[in-house]
From TrEMBL:
Residues 1-40, 64-208 are annotated as: Disordered. This is Putative hydrolytic protein. Residues 131-141, 161-171 have a biased composition (Gly residues). Residues 1-15, 174-201 have a biased composition (Pro residues). It comes from Streptomyces clavuligerus. The lineage of its organism: Bacteria, Bacillati, Actinomycetota, Actinomycetes, Kitasatosporales.
Length: 328
């Protein structure tokens, strides 16, 4: 018989390398990290359980929801609204309240009748119109009022073309007459604007005391070098003269001038372009003498003439009437 091994005896310290049993007893085994469920795992399991419970509750509630159609609802509403035929009405028909209307209680519009054809048979009245207990049209309406609903809609009035429900031979309705357009106001003729008056001619007439005629240009043509003569005073622009501050006497843009600037007796008077020459200076004195200061002579009707077309010249002032002039 083999002998049992000798009991293990602890080695004294410092006697060599420690044994496995000594190391295991000094450091007990611990589970590795991650082998036990942590806080995150428990949170995940609880969340999954809560979601599962909510889904199960939703499915149970969805099974109790009424998914019936509108027709089914209308039938149930009509069944609840209609009173039983065997139950007597506690109130008289006349004072009963109308029943609530449903989709089937809508009154139908009357169909138009064709002239010449017999009227078609009318459809049987429904419970809301004629009543089911044989009480006539008023009974059904009174029963509807008794139930607390709205009264049935009134039937539309008969058309004019149907003759009010007669034999169909009525005349069609006439179209309303169109309103007449408003009369347009009479067009007023355009106002005639008055013609503007021609401007008054500038200047004044120079009239001879002896002849009573006015100074004018020969032929009425206001041109350079035209001779000054006696003419009838008709008021034309060629017979008006302007006395300017510079001493010139002008008409039509030209100046009265002594021909060639002469100072001798008998030198003719004409009109010429204004140049500032002393031969174009004339002064009407207080004695009605029209004097050229350069020659110191008076404007004179030649040979004491008084007829139309008499030439005008300068001559020594003698106070004769053929040398006197007025402005007007």
């Amino acid at each position: 018989m083999p002998s049992s091994p000798p009991p293990h005896e602890p080695k004294p310290p410092g006697s060599g390398r420690p044994s496995f049993s000594d190391t295991f007893s000094a450091h007990p085994a611990h589970p590795q990290r991650g082998t036990r469920p942590g806080r995150r795992v428990w949170t995940t399991l609880l969340s999954a359980g809560a979601v599962t419970a909510v889904c199960a509750l939703t499915v149970s509630l969805a099974g109790q929801i009424d998914l019936s159609t509108d027709e089914g609802r209308s039938e149930r509403t009509a069944a609840v609204a209609k009173p039983s035929a065997s139950a007597p009405s506690s109130a008289p028909p006349a004072s009963a309240a109308p029943s609530p209307r449903t989709a089937d209680d809508t009154p139908r519009q009357p169909r138009p009748r064709t002239p010449g054809k017999p009227a078609a048979a009318q459809p049987p009245a429904r419970d809301g119109a004629a009543g089911t207990d044989g009480g006539g049209p008023g009974a059904g309406a009174d029963r509807g009022r008794a139930d607390g609903g709205a009264p049935p809609a009134a039937a539309p009035p008969p058309r004019t073309g149907d003759g009010g429900g007669g034999s169909g031979g009525g005349t069609p309705p006439r179209a309303a007459p169109r309103p007449k357009p408003a009369a347009r106001p009479a067009t007023r003729p355009p106002a005639v604007k008055p013609k503007p008056k021609p401007p008054a001619p500038r200047g004044t007439r120079i009239t001879g005391v002896a002849s009573g005629r006015c100074l004018d240009v020969a032929g009425g043509r206001v041109t350079d070098g035209a001779k000054v003569v006696l003419n009838d005073c008709t008021g034309t622009s060629g017979r008006r003269w302007e006395f300017r501050p510079d001493g010139t006497v002008r008409t039509g843009g030209y100046c009265m001038d002594v021909a060639w600037g002469s100072t001798a007796d008998g030198a003719l008077v004409q009109i010429a372009r204004c140049s500032g020459n002393p031969a174009q200076t004339f002064v009407l004195s207080t004695q009605n003498d029209l004097v050229n200061p350069q020659a110191n002579k008076c404007v004179d009707a030649k040979d004491f003439g008084t007829t139309k077309g008499t030439p005008i010249q300068i001559w020594g002032c003698g106070g004769a009437t053929n040398q006197k002039w007025r402005t007007r």
